[in-house]
Specification:
alpha/beta; 339 residues
């Protein structure tokens, strides 16, 4: 096109970029006083951490205050980490997450490469650049949601352009002209997508919306002293319990053998461990979900426990005695029930 057309296209692209980028940049400046946030710490965490505890975040944040400092300190490790993730991206994200749509998109990508155009190459290069940047952290589906439009576009290209209308393209016979290929594949793709939604989406919705914290919180609200303090890895449960909240990160990277003594140094009356949040910060304490585990401090009394996809265990850990103390003999049966 002419210079004017190219200029208008560039301005349009820049305007779209600003619409997307400026709000996030403004938020980073408001929160961190800089254009970038500390999210590059995710990269260091993904590369080096073996504890699986987010309590290590602060350590990596101090070691690598900027992305440049991480790149300069570990260029080879970073390159190898990126190469491994890129190698597994097609199977871990495109196929495992997108299933049939991912497989069809790969076919569409190969078809686009056989018949390249400026638009196809631009879409491919932009997508690959974003994949490379995002793959610096983990291959988790939530990080690659932005890639779904590109995957669907290549999938649609595969179905609408790369596939023949009838089977006669492959079998030069009269009857083959009556066997549709393109429309059959489109119908099959839609049917699989609809079936997946009916079978998988309700299950996922039910699993991720289990009111495990709410139920535990309401139980503690009814069965603990009003001035009790709850130690947990998220304030959600304490809000439902209407009790004072103490964050678990106060314990640091506590070892099971030191758990009781470290908790005793705080004001906690109730200690809660739940699959939903606690394993992100203190995976070494997961044994608490099994009250019969020998590592559970003998002085702790079980108040509440549920099983399922997101189990919760709550213990009375305080030494104080009040009329409402759950460890008081007359109330032991009530407060130690296991729903």
């Amino acid at each position: 096109g002419s210079v004017g057309e190219k200029f208008r296209a560039a301005v349009g692209f820049l305007a779209g970029f600003c619409v997307v980028a400026v709000p996030w940049a403004a938020l980073n400046i408001a929160r961190f006083g800089d254009l970038h946030s500390m999210t590059h710490t995710n990269i260091a965490f993904a590369m080096f951490d073996e504890t699986d505890s987010w309590l290590q975040w602060e350590k990596y944040e101090q070691q690598y205050p900027t992305l440049i400092s991480l790149i300069v300190a570990h260029p080879i490790e970073l390159t190898m980490h990126l190469a491994r993730n890129l190698l597994h991206f097609p199977t871990e994200i495109v196929l495992k997450v997108c299933h049939v749509a991912g497989a069809v998109a790969i076919l569409g990508l190969t078809g686009a490469l056989r018949n390249p155009s400026r638009e196809k190459i631009a879409l491919l290069l932009n997508s690959l650049t974003m994949v490379a940047v995002t793959s610096l952290t983990w291959l988790e589906s939530r990080f690659f949601v932005w890639a779904l439009p590109a995957i669907f576009l290549f999938g649609a290209y595969s179905l609408l352009v790369c596939q023949p209308k009838t089977l006669s393209t492959y079998i030069p016979s009269g009857w083959a002209r009556a066997v549709p290929v393109r429309s059959a594949l489109i119908a099959l793709s839609i049917a699989i997508a609809v079936l997946f939604c009916f079978l998988k989406v309700p299950k996922d919705f039910a699993s991720y919306n289990i009111d495990d914290e709410k139920k535990a919180g309401l139980f503690l609200r009814e069965n603990t002293p009003a001035d009790a303090a709850v130690m947990y890895s998220s304030p959600n449960l304490a809000w439902y319990a209407d009790r004072r909240y103490l964050p678990m990160y106060l314990l640091g990277v506590v070892q099971p053998s030191d758990l009781a003594s470290e908790v005793a140094k705080t004001d906690a009356d109730v200690f809660v461990f739940a699959q939903r949040h606690s394993t992100w910060t203190h995976p070494q304490l997961e044994f608490l979900l099994n009250p019969q585990d020998s590592l559970v401090p003998p002085s702790w009394r079980l108040l509440y426990r549920t099983d399922g996809d997101y189990p919760v265990a709550a213990y009375w850990v305080s030494n104080r005695t009040t009329k409402q103390d759950p460890t008081d003999g007359a109330l032991t049966g009530r407060y130690q029930r296991v729903p």
